[in-house]
Design brief:
Strand content of chain B: 25-35%
InterPro entries (chain B): AAA+_ATPase, ABC_transporter-like_ATP-bd, ABC_transporter-like_CS, P-loop_NTPase, Siderophore_ABC-ATPase
Order of helices and strands of chain A: HHHHHHHHHHHHH
Keywords (chain B): ATP-binding, Cell membrane, Ion transport, Iron, Iron transport, Membrane, Nucleotide-binding, Transport
Distance between the termini of chain B: 35 Å
Shape of chain A: globular
Strand order of the largest sheet of chain B: 6-7-8-3-9-10
CATH superfamily of chain B: P-loop containing nucleotide triphosphate hydrolases
Radius of gyration of chain A: 20 Å
Largest sheet of chain A: none
Shape of chain B: globular
Protein name (chain B): ABC transporter ATP-binding protein
Strand content of chain A: under 5%
GO molecular function, one term (chain B): ATP binding
CATH class of chain B: Alpha Beta
Subcellular location (chain B): Cell membrane
Number of domains of chain A: 1
CATH topology of chain A: ABC transporter involved in vitamin B12 uptake, BtuC
Radius of gyration of chain B: 19 Å
Number of helices of chain A: 13
Oligomer: heterodimer
CATH architecture of chain A: Orthogonal Bundle
């Protein structure tokens, strides 16, 4: 308990440091006092870039990272599947279908509305998976999510490829924004959309964790403890879908943060208790994404690597390491 | 002669089944408060299924289970969990979770939504760890324990629920002789000192005869014999229920009946 709180505080401190670095580093690198000046003084040459480009982007990374981490914790513990992540829910492919269709067919959609439409696509894909899995409980739930999720993802992928085939080369460039996870060129509006989905999802996740923790003991034990097993599992999947869908709609597929943050949290806090893991995983997820985004825009400056690629490149070896070390799932 | 009491748990015309197979048929059963009841029967006789239906983990296809005179499925599940704890056979050991963390889950029905932010295990958890002799293993991951030690963890979790009713599905499975005896003595002590009501599925008939107030013998989802050990543990019942030819003796230690197969 105390260790978890200390680790959570440590992760929050790391997050603060990552945010500050992210704000300070860029085309013009600023010292902390300069940064403060740039953010507050409208006459400062970097004011617009600091306040309307770097700040929302950094905060978006933090909010999205926490949302992905919460989705990972809920999915892993509610399904009893240590490698579960929002990829299972097909949300990013649902977002991609909408984005691809709107872009290629040149639907008269204002740019501000496109994220909301993508969100609808992401949520629809998540809902299809969750509802197809059904409230039925039992060890089969995890398997059914994997199978139905794979089917929905494959179907959406097929649609996206088909739609791209109808488009021009110019459309494909636009589409990259949705097909590869990225925080680039996201502003306050984008942050607002993500926060509107992620903040309620985080609160709901916190309230659900105690019941989700009981699911880890098996459905009969959980029922005996007074947990409404089917309802709790359904709620956990819906909340995870909400968090993952809002992130996918705005940032595209950001892989591995949801999978890794809970594992890092369990290892660092030395506990597998769902509520404590969530408490630690949220700031860990934020930090992971902010750092990954910072790396993705500075590593090959001025060329930017989509952050989804950065998280994958970091995530795969880390996951392999965790697996080989036999970390408790 | 005992004064008839209101049953604390009651099955009326209970039918329980899975998709294509009816396991329990029109079964009536009254569980009196402060008693130790053993459910016995051959494999597939429906004794575990009956126990799970009594604990509202399985939903009946017919009839009703009443807890304190009210249908159990119409009561809030958390409220039921404050009255009745179930030790199932199918408990999973969550990877990485310690003994204390698992036993602490028994407090679920008694803590609010923010109960997870409590400082640590409470008195009920410590008492349950003590009663099951798990103090020394409190910080050990459950996944590292032997089958018998794990069994004691699930029992401790049920005890931590602090319910008047305990439903135990084969609680002595995996336990060595010493721990089997300890557990049976604990069951009797919980009845005597705290007035708890215990219903347990047992495989060992002599164990049932030695420690239970009452034995309910099932076969093919029906009760074939029901009564004090002396009435149930007879050559005729043993033949009808288990198809065995048995010699029934008097246990020299407890004066209860015991059987030896011929």
């Amino acid at each position: 308990m105390y260790r978890s709180l200390v680790v959570a505080a440590g992760a929050a401190a790391l997050l603060a440091a990552a945010l500050l670095t992210s704000l300070a580093v860029g085309a013009a690198t600023l010292s902390p006092p300069e940064l403060l000046l740039a953010l507050t003084d409208p006459q400062h040459p970097v004011h617009v870039s600091a306040l309307h480009v770097r700040l929302p982007r950094a905060l978006l990374g933090a909010v999205a990272g926490a949302g992905l981490a919460a989705a990972g914790v809920l999915l892993q513990d509610a399904l009893g599947n240590p490698v579960a992540g929002p990829e299972l829910l097909g949300v990013s492919s649902g977002a991609a279908v909408v984005a691809a269709t709107a872009t290629v067919l040149h639907l008269p959609v204002p740019l501000q509305v496109l994220p909301l439409l993508s969100l609808a696509g992401a949520l629809a894909a998540g809902l299809v998976v969750v509802l197809a899995v059904g409230p039925g409980s039992g060890p089969g739930a995890s398997t059914r999510v994997v199978l139905v999720g794979a089917a929905v993802t494959a179907a959406c992928g097929g649609v996206v490829v088909a739609v791209i085939g109808l488009g021009t080369e110019g459309d494909v460039v636009l589409l990259m924004r949705y097909l590869l996870g990225s925080l680039s060129a996201r502003g306050w509006n984008d942050l607002a959309v993500v926060a509107l989905g992620v903040v309620p999802a985080l609160l709901a996740a916190l309230l659900l964790t105690r019941s989700v923790a009981a699911l880890r003991l098996g459905d009969h034990v959980a029922t005996g403890l007074g947990v409404s097993v089917a309802r709790v599992r359904l709620m956990a999947l819906l909340v995870a879908s909400l968090a993952a869908a809002t992130v996918a709609a705005i940032c595209g597929p950001v892989a591995y943060v949801a999978l890794l943050a809970p594992h890092v949290a369990r290892a660092a806090a030395g506990t597998t208790s769902t509520p404590l893991v969530l408490l630690v995983a949220a700031p860990v997820g934020s930090t992971l994404l902010v750092v990954a985004d910072l790396a993705s825009r500075t590593a090959f400056y001025p060329v930017e690597v989509p952050v989804g690629i950065a998280t994958t490149l970091v995530g795969v070896p880390l996951l392999a390491l965790l697996t080989l070390r036999g970390r408790p799932a | 002669m005992k004064v008839p009491t209101e049953p604390v748990l009651r099955a009326r015309a209970l039918g329980v089944g899975y998709r294509d197979r009816q396991v329990i048929h029109a079964l009536d059963l009254r569980i009196e408060p402060g008693s130790v009841t053993a459910l016995v029967g051959p494999n597939g006789s429906g004794k575990s299924t009956l126990l799970h239906a009594l604990a509202r983990v399985l939903t009946p296809t017919d009839g009703v289970v009443e807890l304190d005179g009210t249908p159990i499925t119409s009561q809030r599940s958390v409220a039921v969990a404050r009255r009745l704890a179930l030790l199932p056979q199918s408990a999973l050991a969550p990877p990485g979770a310690t003994v204390t963390e698992v036993v602490d889950q028994g407090r679920y029905p008694r803590t609010g939504a923010l109960g997870m932010l409590r400082r640590g295990p409470d008195d009920a958890v410590r008492e349950a760890l003590g009663l099951t002799g798990l103090e020394d293993l409190a910080r050990t991951p459950v996944a590292q324990l032997s089958g018998g030690q794990r069994q004691r963890v699930w029992i401790a979790m049920a005890l931590a629920q602090q319910t008047d009713l305990l439903l135990l599905d084969e609680p002595t499975t995996y336990l060595d002789v010493r721990h089997q005896l300890d557990l049976m003595e604990l069951v009797v002590r919980l009845r005597d000192e705290q007035g708890k009501t215990i219903v347990m599925v047992l495989h060992d008939l002599n164990q049932a005869a030695r420690h239970a107030d009452r034995i309910v013998a099932l076969r093919d989802g029906r009760i074939l014999a029901d009564g004090p050990p002396a009435e149930v543990l007879t050559p005729r019942v043993l033949h009808e229920v288990f198809d065995i030819d048995a010699l029934v003796l008097t246990d020299p230690v407890t004066s209860r009946p015991m059987f030896v197969a011929r």
